[in-house]
Design brief:
Layout: H1 10-31, H2 38-45, H3 49-56, H4 59-83, H5 89-104, H6 107-117, H7 120-147, H8 156-168, H9 171-176, H10 184-201
Helix pairs in contact: 1-2, 1-4, 1-6, 2-3, 3-4, 4-5, 4-7, 5-10, 6-7, 7-8, 8-10
């Protein structure tokens, strides 16, 4: 079936949508959310302002979609991290923890979190789409470890909260307040230490 005249094919529309979201993400990092305009995003993406308003409504609507898109990417990265341990839960959780620190202290995440500070609606989307979506994957993984007798953590969601807190601590808020982001070596060391402590706290008791 030939697309109606004037309508973009679905694949082309999705490609252009992602171009717009990437442009917004770049500009938020460069200029901040407040200083970035829809005109700037349109110009960077090679689109018209009319297209942006038609597709996203306004800048907050565009940013909501940017958060959702980032959450999808993050969830895919979490799933990949949990799969790469070759059956070793410490390796899998360490890969997840390292990726989490990389994400939360990276410029795009910092820019979006600063935007969310000024908008309760964006804060809600960021909370629900970000931590909660990836959290379900990690909670499911921890639940499987508990059922296999690897850890003693009957409440998988509480176990995830414990792990998340051990990994993140005050690192993210420090970067949001202007502290330098940890280096790759520092992130790796923090991830290992957090997972080692977590595994000690939830170690399965001998039967």
């Amino acid at each position: 079936m030939t697309p109606r005249r004037g309508r973009l094919p679905a694949a082309e529309r999705e490609r252009r949508r992602r171009d717009i979201l990437r442009a917004a993400r770049e500009l938020y990092v460069e200029h901040g959310y407040g200083a970035t305009t829809m005109a700037m995003i349109a110009r960077r993406a090679g689109a018209s302002k009319e297209t942006l308003y038609a597709w996203f409504g306004d800048k907050e609507g565009l940013t909501r979609e940017l958060i959702e898109w980032g959450a999808d990417e993050s969830a895919s990265a979490v799933a990949a991290a949990l799969d790469q341990g070759d059956g070793d839960p410490v390796a899998a959780l360490t890969a997840y923890a390292d990726g989490l620190l990389t994400l939360l202290t990276g410029p795009p995440s910092v820019a979006l979190n600063r935007a969310a500070m000024a908008s309760p609606a964006l804060a809600r989307v960021l909370r629900e789409a970000g931590r909660q979506r990836a959290g379900r994957l990690v909670s499911g993984y921890l639940g499987r470890l508990h059922r296999a007798g690897v850890i003693d953590a009957p409440d998988a969601e509480a176990a995830f909260g414990l792990l998340y807190g051990l990994v993140v601590q005050d690192t993210q808020i420090g970067v949001l307040l202007g502290a330098p982001a940890p280096s790759a070596r520092d992130r790796a060391a923090r991830a290992r230490a957090a997972v080692e402590r977590f595994m000690r706290l939830v170690a399965a008791r001998p039967s």
